[in-house]
Write a structure and sequence with these properties.
heterodimer, A: mainly alpha, elongated, B: 619 residues, mainly alpha, two-stranded antiparallel sheet, 19 helices, globular, disordered N terminus, binds protoporphyrin IX containing FE, binds copper (II) ion
Chain lengths: 200, 619
């Protein structure tokens, strides 16, 4: 993501107004990500009952706990919207506050995931216990890694706005991070519904 | 016209020559050349592997390769040809010509483009290095579990899984780049339907890559984790399911077939009209059938798995979809024939390769249709019949099409023509060698010779045709030498090409050869499909093309041309990934290399993010 370089169509006086380059690229990237998570979730669905001698989903999932951390992540989409809104009104101070709030919620979610993982390991589920374990941990870890990348992006955007780097093109950057963040959020909603709620 | 416009503006961007200039280049044309040269290098490597295979099989009970070496050879031959030759060769043309065909100055993200190349380059290096450290992958290019997770001891299939992962990353990045380029960088007036067919096919390919690679990426992660962490995705003993791998692989693998063939179809669709002196017949049908192939490519994957026991309903469904996907391909072939019909045909080398493409591809397509019939497929499966089929498609199709592109666009890239006589010699030796090699494989396959076995006993009737095939493969090697010689001699003795040596129809022929750094001094305005052609000719009442009195000149108001400045961060980032990959193969000892590699990668990405995009235009 830090890799965004661009040739703004506006720079070529001759170009008609075209959809903004980086936004198109982000949509394409997210399209690709849909297939990535789709494959992980399909693998999980195939293996959800293949628990071997290990614990089953019903035995280990703690739905109330995961519901709370899902709610936290959901709220972070709200703060993200507020950050985006503030950036459009060039209210940099508010924007930073909401960006940091979003990052904080994201980190809380990650902490919850770490806690959940250690619990599961205690109860005897690891990546090598059963296909169920392998599929579960790999899928949720990839999602966690995406949240972590999102947190880094949020923090980087917030700090860059101090140096004034964002000012010229700020709305766009926040908008891109927002697109990514909402996507990661939506993926979690799908995982939570399909993987957790349908299991028990 | 272009002399004038060229003088009208000067190139403001610092140019650097030499190796450093290539390493730091962010110019899509230089990156295209890098892709092309790398593809040819790997083509030679993959070719030597093929020759070793064929030499081993020339006589019964062959003794050139051990069974182990043979397994490495066919795995690496196929992996190299698919991922390190045909895909990057197509990427070479797309990189070089997509912006030119669209009337743009560069791709949307020049440095990202450089990164894609360097990741590909180091990925290819990583795969090839395996021969010298620990042994090359030996589980087949399709890596079927449990072959990929067990058979090869130690690290071999780790090279394969990680190598394909990183090559996939390179392709996804360039797919995003090309999609964005098409959506946002077209010259004024260049509507989607006015886009040249090659640009269209590259566009469809980008979508195929974008949506199919994530699937295999997940699968490759799972293979790697099964091998190194002890996960149970494909371990039947642990409750996993090896057939899942087959689904993931072919959900990617079938679209991949079109990734390999569509660029060649695009090239042929550019070449045929130019050398027939007619517009492409049924242009929009060619485009829409390309799109249809893109969609349908995702719906037929399980025809590779008829022998895996999917059950009759699934098999019938996939047999049907597979027969349907022949339709848009058939449409294209009729359009090409329609373009030839009544044209004033010039049999130049690019044209010969295009005609060779059509003929060979039709043969490959017909033997392919026989696979969609489930009972027939169970007979042919894993025999040399299949080897014959996919070489007619991938070599007779993709490689012939790509060579058509090489001869067609060479003068634009280098400013000099390749020699027609040597070119024709190249074509005919290759065509004859190709058919000598692969036509007999149909016979061998139907006679029951299995593929991927390193020797066959005497007395089964396999001797004669195997010997013929081996002779043919050496003839192919000769044809490649002819090509290399032609390339070498054209550097100084090739005829100087001028802007428009073929009387072309598309925008790249409006600018000098080789094109200046900024491509178009003035961004062109497009009024129709075949716009450049209509600048040169108009139709009289009888429908004949009449030259327009004076070629129209675009008034060259000097534009400020901002070009991206060179950067070594993409290459550095790719290099960091390479170090990390080497570390991953040799876990846990390699952890040091993993850490070091990731640090270099971060350094590259960070430097990149902080670096200004362009230098000041006026110094
Ligand atoms: C120089 C000419 C070539 C020759 C002589 C040649 C020869 C062969 C032979 C003999 C095999 C069978 C290996 C076996 O079953 O044991 C093979 C496999 C294969 N080749 Fe080629 N090949 C050539 C070019 C190409 C090209 C241009 C491509 C693709 C773009 C290609 C793709 C493949 C693939 C995918 C396999 C399957 C390997 C497997 O069975 O797993 N080959 N080739
Ligand atoms: Cu297929």
């Amino acid at each position: 993501m830090s890799a965004v370089t661009h040739t703004d169509p506006a720079e070529h006086g001759a170009h008609p107004p075209l959809p903004h380059v980086r936004k198109v690229a982000m949509w394409a990237f997210l399209g690709s990500e849909c297939l990535f998570f789709g494959t992980l979730i399909s693998t999980f669905l195939l293996y959800r009952n293949r628990t071997g001698d290990g614990p089953t989903a019903a035995e280990i999932f703690d739905i109330p706990f995961t519901s709370i951390s899902s709610f936290i992540l959901l709220m972070s989409s709200l703060t993200m919207v507020l950050a985006h809104y503030a950036s459009e009104r060039k209210d940099w101070r508010r924007m930073r506050v909401w960006l940091l709030a979003t990052a904080l919620l994201g980190m809380t979610f990650l902490a919850g995931q770490v806690f959940e993982f250690t619990e599961f390991v205690h109860e005897g589920l690891t990546v090598t216990t059963s296909p169920f374990g392998s599929a579960f941990f790999v899928m949720t870890s990839f999602h966690g890694a995406h949240v972590a990348v999102g947190v880094i992006l949020l923090l980087a955007t917030a700090f860059m706005s101090f140096g004034g780097k964002l000012r010229a093109d700020g709305g766009m950057n926040v908008e891109l991070v927002a697109l990514y963040w909402h996507f990661v959020d939506i993926v979690w909603i799908v995982i939570f519904t399909v993987v957790y709620l349908l299991q028990v | 016209m272009s002399e004038e416009t060229q003088m009208a503006s000067t190139d403001h961007t610092a140019h650097r020559g030499g190796a450093w200039g290539w390493i730091t280049s962010t110019d899509h044309k230089k990156i295209g050349i890098l892709y092309g040269v790398s593809a040819i290098m790997f083509f030679l490597i993959g070719g030597v592997e093929a020759l070793l295979i064929r030499t081993q099989l020339a006589l019964p009970n062959g003794d050139v390769l051990s069974a182990d070496a043979y397994n490495q050879m066919f795995t690496m031959h196929a992996t190299t040809m698919v991922f390190l030759v045909v895909m990057p060769a197509a990427a070479a043309f797309t990189n070089y010509f997509l912006p030119l065909l669209l009337g743009a100055r560069d791709v949307a993200f020049p440095r990202l483009n450089a990164l894609s190349y360097w990741i590909f380059f180091f990925g290819g290096l990583f795969l090839t290095i395996s021969f010298f450290v620990g042994g090359a992958p030996d589980g087949g290019w399709f890596g079927y579990a449990p072959l990929s997770t067990q058979v090869s001891e130690v690290v071999r299939m780790d090279y394969w899984a990680l190598g394909l992962l990183i090559l996939g990353l390179a392709s996804v990045l360039s797919a995003i780049n090309f999609i964005t380029t098409v959506f946002t960088m077209r010259a004024p007036g260049m509507t989607l339907m006015r886009m040249p067919v090659f640009a269209w096919m590259a566009f469809v390919v980008a979508f195929l890559l974008l949506f199919s690679l994530p699937i295999i990426t997940v699968g490759l992660f799972q293979v790697f984790l099964d091998r190194n962490l002890g996960t149970l995705f494909f371990s039947a003993a642990g409750g996993g399911d090896p057939v899942l791998w087959q689904h993931l692989f072919w959900l990617f693998g079938h679209p991949e077939v079109y990734v390999l063939i569509l660029p060649a179809m695009g090239i042929v669709s550019e070449v045929l009209p130019v050398f027939s002196g007619k517009p492409l017949f049924g242009r929009s049908f060619v485009i829409f059938s390309g799109i249809a192939i893109g969609f349908m490519g995702f719906g037929v994957w399980a025809h590779h798995m008829f022998t895996s026991g999917l059950g009759p309903v699934a098999e019938a469904a996939f047999a049907l979809t597979t027969m349907f996907i022949g339709v848009p391909t058939g449409v294209k072939i009729f359009n090409w024939l329609g373009t030839l019909w009544g044209g004033s045909i010039r049999f130049k080398t690019p044209m010969l390769f295009s005609l060779g493409f059509i003929a060979m591809f039709v043969i490959g397509g017909l033997s392919g249709v026989t696979h969609s019939i489930v009972p027939a497929d169970t007979q042919q499966h894993d025999t040399y019949y299949v080897v014959a089929h996919f070489h007619y498609v991938l070599f007779g199709g993709a490689i012939f099409g790509l060579f058509a592109g090489v001869y067609y666009w060479w003068p634009k890239i280098t400013g000099r023509l390749l020699h027609e006589g040597w070119g024709k010699l190249h074509f005919w030796t290759m065509l004859i060698g190709f058919n000598l090699t692969f036509a007999p494989m149909h016979v061998l396959g139907l006679a029951g010779m299995p593929r991927r076995t390193y020797r066959y006993p005497e007395g089964l009737g396999f001797e004669f045709w195997n010997f013929v095939a081996t002779v043919g493969s050496y003839l192919i090697a000769v044809s490649i030498l002819v090509f290399l010689w032609n390339w070498w001699r054209s550097r100084h003795h090739g005829e100087v090409a001028g802007n428009d040596p073929w009387n072309g129809r598309t925008l790249e022929w409006t600018i000098p050869s080789p094109p200046p750094h900024y491509n178009f001094a003035t961004v062109p305005t497009v009024h129709s499909e075949d716009s450049f052609w209509h600048d040169k000719y108009r139709e009289d009442e009888a429908g004949n093309a009449v030259p327009v009195a004076a070629a129209p000149t675009t008034t060259a108001a000097e534009e400020d041309i901002h070009m991206p400045s060179p950067s070594y961060y993409p290459a550095l980032t790719g290099f960091g990934m390479f170090i990390a990959l080497m570390g991953f193969v040799y876990l846990p000892v390699g952890l040091v290399a993993v850490a070091a590699g990731l640090m270099v990668t971060m350094w590259g990405l960070f430097g990149w993010a902080m670096e200004p995009l362009t230098r000041e235009p006026h110094e």
